[in-house]
Automatic annotation (TrEMBL):
Signal peptide: none annotated. It is a multi-pass membrane protein. It comes from the Bacteria. GO terms for biological process: response to arsenic-containing substance. The chain crosses the membrane at residues 35-62, 74-93, 153-177, 198-215, 221-238, 250-275, 321-346, 358-380. This is Na+/H+ antiporter NhaD/arsenite permease-like protein. InterPro entries: Arsenical_pump_ArsB, Cit_transptr-like_dom. It is found in: Cell membrane.
Length: 384
């Protein structure tokens, strides 16, 4: 409920900005045109994952992964690291946050392990691991265009060193802080039977079909909306009691709507100009660090996408664009609103009754985000 309250307050503040003329109505309408596909995707993908979880899809995936771990928690964790990295690189950070988080939670519980290290691995890899390919993050696609549309291979060549650093540093931190939970053995436990095999196989097929469609070039809201309708009809026929209003993440939608409107009002008030002023110029190691750290601060203050858009005009070379991406991709590990992936991840945790205090999350992020961004930027400066 606190999420909904914060979202409502931000919507009111944004509404005041529109009513007073601080945020012109045409700009608010343009914002809505950009935002509604994102919000529709959030609703659709959340409903799909909820229904797939009800059908037992994630339970079966988790059980299989637990068997591959062969009773060693650290091996199981490394499997999660690899899968999260591949999912983020090839399918995008939002897909990792939404689809992988339920799997790792169910997997950890099935093995009798603490799910928090696995969940933290997922969200940190989803953000920090999204540097390598254009499809990994929407900011990358924008930067690719600003670079003159290099091929994915050329883009990856530029980003390879910082991407590796950005993936490794947070995972080292996770292992260090969770080593007592990971250096243990586990029993896989008994297999959970599938209650309805028709539901299971149809839900599994929908999820499998959905994954490539998310990177097919189609607007992501379209295949996820179709998947929602398909699963909704199947559940209506076979397990109607599952279909309820609570499947819709209305609190998250309210918060995201409020954030988008409030951030746009801040832009109109001159925040973008201020950020551009402090980001500096040049391609020396210190200049690139200044830009990436400005991106880090901006992402955690106002969300990574508007932070990127605010700073793109001063990132006037491939090296500076790469530094900016390091800041806005690997840096959003501190505040809950720093990226949509983090909000989606937390909504998945809540739906599975896994609690993590935002104060603890932010404290850990304050430690790992600056170190990751600085080291990744130094790796960039050593290779350009």
């Amino acid at each position: 409920m606190r999420t909904a309250i914060v979202g409502a307050v931000l919507l009111v503040l944004g509404g005041i900005a529109v009513a007073t003329g601080l945020l012109p109505v045409p700009e608010a309408v343009e914002l809505w045109d950009r935002v509604w596909p994102i919000l529709l995707f959030v609703v659709a993908i959340t409903v799909v994952t909820e229904l797939a979880a009800e059908a037992g899809v994630f339970t079966v995936l988790a059980q299989q992964t637990a068997r591959w771990g062969r009773g060693r928690a650290w091996v199981l964790w490394l499997l999660v690291v690899v899968v999260a990295a591949l999912s983020t690189i090839f399918l995008s950070l939002d897909t990792t946050a939404v689809l992988l988080t339920p799997v790792v939670i169910v997997m950890a519980r099935h093995a009798g392990l603490n799910p928090l290290p696995f969940a933290l691995t997922t969200v940190w890899m989803a953000n920090a691991g999204s540097l390598l390919l254009p499809v990994s993050n929407l900011t990358n696609l924008l930067a690719q265009h600003a670079m003159g549309d290099p091929t994915p291979a050329a883009f990856a060549a530029l980003m390879l060193a910082p991407a590796l650093v950005a993936m490794i540093v947070p995972m080292v931190v996770v292992f260090v802080i969770a080593r007592k939970s990971l250096l243990v053995r586990y029993e896989t436990g008994e297999e959970d039977g599938i209650e309805d095999r028709v539901l299971f196989w149809i839900s599994g097929a929908v999820v499998v079909a959905l994954v490539p469609l998310l990177v097919s070039g189609l607007p992501v809201w379209l295949p996820t909306s179709i998947a929602t309708v398909v699963l909704g009809v199947v559940f209506l026929v076979r397990r109607r009691s599952v279909l309820r209003f609570g499947l819709v993440p209305w609190q998250l939608v309210l918060l995201a709507s409020g954030l988008f409107l409030f951030i746009e009002a801040l832009h109109a008030a001159g925040l973008a100009t201020l950020m551009a002023t402090v980001s500096g110029t040049g391609e020396s190691p210190l200049a690139l660090l200044r830009l990436s750290l400005t991106g880090l601060v901006g992402a955690n203050a106002i969300d990574n996408l508007p932070a990127y858009l605010a700073l793109e005009p001063v990132a006037d070379s491939p090296a500076r664009l790469a530094a900016l991406l390091i800041g806005v991709n690997a840096g959003p590990l501190i505040t809950p609103w720093a990226s949509l992936a983090t909000l989606l991840w937390h909504q998945r945790l809540t739906s599975f009754d896994v609690e993590i205090r935002w104060s603890r999350y932010m404290l850990l992020g304050l430690i790992v985000a600056p170190v990751t961004v600085v080291l990744a930027t130094l790796a960039l400066s050593a290779t350009v």
